[in-house]
Fold this protein.
Amino acid sequence: MDSPEADRFLAALVPRLRMIRAVARTEHITQAAESLRMPQPTLSRALSRLQDELGLALVERTGRGVRLTRAGRLLLPHVERALEDLTRGVSEITGGEQGRVALTFLPTLGVEVVPALLRGFRVEHPGVRFSLTQEPWAQSLRRVSSGGADLALTSPLPAVPGLVSSVLHTQALRLVVPEQHRLASATAKVVPLAAAQEEFILLKEGRGVRHLTDRMGERAGFTPRVAFEADDIATARGLVGAGLGVSVLPARPEGPLPGTVELAIADGDTERPLGVVWPAEGSGGGYEPPAVRLFRDYVQRVGPRVIPDLTG
């Protein structure tokens, strides 16, 4: 790492550690001061204050030069490691190519969507590292709000203070019924939610599709009778195919699962927006690491092309 911004951070964070390292490398106060771009008297006074505070000598004179004492030599490997760690940390907050991105996403996106996005991004920025968490919608939003993640790929998108989002893809929600269901042969294929009087298979609380289904039912004045609560969309779809109930699920891009029929719902807003969520400007100290910004920009640019082909 070598940039004015990084140098500024390191100069503020670790001046004394750098002094010790410089003296060890040069064994000369004047040369050490020159390498640190500071006056020689300033370095001498700083080292003297440090030794007074510690109560032991770290540097000793040897004729016209200096060297580390035994205590200084014992300390030096730890100083070197601390500087290396701090240098990596500064790289993460000042440079986009060695940073880290904490990403949370829906489990359904972990099979193809997230791997495809990461693969494409890492071609352009191979040094960026990722911390990945798969979790339901509500937990994902809480993690971003609390600072536990930089970005979330989730659905639906929030309308709350402190979070902003960008839509990458919109899926239609459908009433999914077994193929022998009385509504399966409906001529119009558009039915009100209340037309399904059978028991429903819903996703568990905290899942995005469950939130949308509950909101849809409230608008329609309809409260479904729940037969099963599934962890994920694929399981709910399979339970419908087994004839165990009906469900509200995203339309399957490749067509209904065998044994099921998908019906358009007549009750208002029946879309599921999927997108990327991040803290609003001013949240988290108003700072967005460069690597996070690079990945968010990439997802906003590439996601609308990748996601429709890989979600279902």
